[in-house]
Structure formats: C-alpha cells, structure tokens
Amino acid sequence: MSFKTKDITFDELFICNAKDIEAIKQNKLEKKRNVNNNYFYLELPNQEWGFSVLKEGNTLFIPLTNQTKLDDKKNLDKLMTLYKKGELKRKRLGYNFWIKSGELAVVTRDIFKKSYKSLKYKLPNTCCSVFIYTDKSYDSNNKIFKKFRKESDGLFRRYNLVSNFKNRDEKHLDEIIFEMDDLHQEEMAFIESDLLEPNICFLEVTV
C-alpha cells in the first residue's frame, strides 16, 4: 500500500502516535531527535517536494529526496538490491520509540509555509525503530545543503534580532532580506546544475 503526492513541500518529519498530531501543529513537541520514547523527529537540511510512504506489512518506507522512487514494491526491491550490492548504507537513527495508541502517524511540516501533511496507519501497540539508507551522491549533496541551512538559519536569527529593536534600521533589514534571496538563488542553482545523482535517501520504520 502506498501514498504519494507531488504537491507537498517539507523540511521536517515526525513519526509519532496519531494523538500527537495536534501537538505538532501547535508546535508543542520539542524538535529534537528522540528526546523521549514517544516519537521520532528529523529535520532535513533542505526543503523537499513530493511526499510518499510505502507500507509493506508493518514496515514503512519514506523517501527523503524527490529523486528516490519508492511508490511500489518493484522500486523497493531495486533499492534493496542496491543495498545488498553495497551501493547504499544503512544506519539506525536514534533510539526506539513506542506507539501506544494503536495508530502511528507520519507528519511532514514546511517550516516557512507552516503547512502540514499527516498520514495514519493502524498498528499494534509496539516499539518502532528507524533506519536511514543513503548513497554516496546523497551524502555529498547533504554536506552542501547543511552549509546552506546553517547560513540561512544565521540570517533568520539576524533578521529576527534586528526587527525586534525599538529603533530598528529598515535599511539593515532590507540588506538581510537581499542576502536571504541571494542565498536562496545560490541553492536553487546548485539543485538545477550541480546536484549529484541519483541522490538516494529514505527511511525504514520497523516494528
């Protein structure tokens, strides 16, 4: 069973009990990976578009790049073949977490648009583990996206700091906005021209 849409953009992902969806929308869950044993959180270094989940038995597979095709078992088998050949790395992310409500939710969030998408899956009360699969091209791209994210976060902190001044300098704010726009254009140019392929990355959620 699979779900797929090209209309979703996201840069954060939660895997949690379905009852926690509203808490996520109200920004009440701490955004740190595995701060407790009730949910899983992941921040992507860049904004991705297109969101899909493939369910095989009680295992979920969640692509984290637009280039990772995982909409049916045939594509999953191809990726598992790459893993067996040593072309993909598999690594556990954090600690186990518990689904105690009988319903697991996968929630994506677009930080800047403040938009959400959630999917629910009925599961027995169980302990879940998360693994990430990546190839060499993704690992290389990821380093560059993390650099962009670090610079972007710094600019947003500067903007918020200056905008809160009582006698703020509007010219200074405009300069920061221009820097943000330049950085965004630089990132888009990287994606269009220099992104290494096949850029494979996906999560496996096991019970």
How do the strands and helices of this protein lay out in sequence?
Elements: E1 2-17, H1 21-25, E2 39-56, E3 59-63, H2 73-84, E4 89-92, E5 97-99, E6 103-110, E7 115-122, E8 126-134, H3 136-163, H4 170-194, E9 201-206
Antiparallel strand pairs: 1-2, 1-6, 2-3, 3-9, 4-8, 5-8, 6-7, 8-9
Features:
207 residues, alpha+beta, 2 domains, nine-stranded antiparallel sheet, 9 strands
Radius of gyration: 19 Å
Helix content: 25-40%
- Give the averaged pLDDT, no decimals: 90
Number of strand elements: 9
Question: What does this 3D model show about the protein?
Answer:
By secondary structure, this protein is of the alpha+beta class. The protein has two domains: 2-133 and 200-206, no CATH class; 138-194. Helix content is 34%, strand content 37%. It contains four helices and nine strands, in the order βαββαβββββααβ. It has helices at 21-25, 73-84, 136-163, 170-194; strands at residues 2-17, 39-56, 59-63, 89-92, 97-99, 103-110, 115-122, 126-134, 201-206. Strands 1, 2, 3, 4, 5, 6, 7, 8 and 9 form a nine-stranded antiparallel beta sheet that branches. Strand 2 (39-56) and strand 3 form a beta hairpin. Helix 3 (136-163) runs antiparallel to helix 4.
